[in-house]
Amino acid sequence: MRLPTFDGTIEKWASFLDIFSSMIDRNDNLTPVQKLQYLRSTLTDKAAACIQSLSITDANYTDAIELLKEKFDCTRCIILGHCDALRNIPKLSKDSPEALGNLVDTIRQHLRALKNLGESVSSWNSMLVSIILSKVSSDIAWLWELTLTDRKRMPLYTDLLEFLEKRANCAPASSPAPAKPSRPESPRMRRSRPIREHAFLSSDTQQCPICQGGHGIWACGEFQAKSAKEPLLKTRLSAVIA
Q1: Residues 72, 204: Cα–Cα separation, whole Å
Q2: pLDDT tens digits for the chain (242 residues)?
Q3: Which DSSP letter does residue 89 get?
Q4: Distance between CA atoms of residues 158 and 161, nearest Å
Q5: CA distances to 6, 21, 62, 113, 126 from 25, in Å
Q6: What is the dihedral of CA 8, 12, 15, 19, to 10 degrees?
Q7: What is the rounded CA–CA span in Å between residue 103 and residue 96?
Q8: Cystine design at 205: which of 30, 50, 102, 201 (Cβ 3.0–4.6 Å)?
Q9: Where are the domains of the chain?
């Protein structure tokens, strides 16, 4: 198991101390010097600066633990640290399932730690609802408002977290596949396409194809004269026009 690190963030102190004590401090197979070496390897930033002046000796291991406890083992400061962390959670830039899930997990972790420190979190209901709503978009807040059956009564913050968790568990909508661009028609394809040519103009134009007059072919005197002499011509023309 990998040792945790501690950078001086006060709300992380209790968790760090419990794990370090279990793995290193209560390990009888390690000497105090070895324990101090492990301790220094896990500290960064403010926490490391707290014991940096101590040389690595057997006697200084106990002093190092005491110095860290004096600085970070303060229940009041730890509680305030968790409260500050809740207020300082950044507002979500997007309402993706992953972002909503991370928000719910972070809020629950801080609230669970506060409960373990003896705080009556349930009595903070209205404040917690306000804090949580300030971290999501107006669209998410509006959707949650639609689920409320009694708009005059303050809902529970736990119900709000459950709503956000359900949204987080929804799979992101799949985006539609982009339309394939139409393939340009090659000149060869255009040449192979059959071209239909009409021998006669439609009747809507009212232009006779025989004499070019402004009437239909059946009203053309010249056509009537020809068809009287050649009945087969009229029959063939009727078949073509049909």
Answers
A1: 97
A2: 688 899 999 888 988 999 999 999 999 999 999 999 999 999 999 999 999 999 999 999 999 999 999 999 888 988 999 999 999 999 998 888 999 999 999 999 999 999 998 999 989 999 999 999 999 999 999 999 998 888 889 999 999 999 999 988 875 554 444 555 555 555 565 555 555 544 444 444 556 666 667 766 667 777 676 666 555 555 555 554 54
A3: P
A4: 5
A5: 15, 4, 10, 23, 42
A6: -40
A7: 11
A8: 201
A9: 10-73, 77-169
Contact, 201 vs 161, CB < 8 A?
A: no
Cα dist. 218→80, 99, 225, 232 in Å?
102, 78, 11, 15
Three-state secondary structure call for residue 43: strand
- Identify whether the C-beta of residue 97 lies closer than 8 Å to the C-beta of residue 169: yes
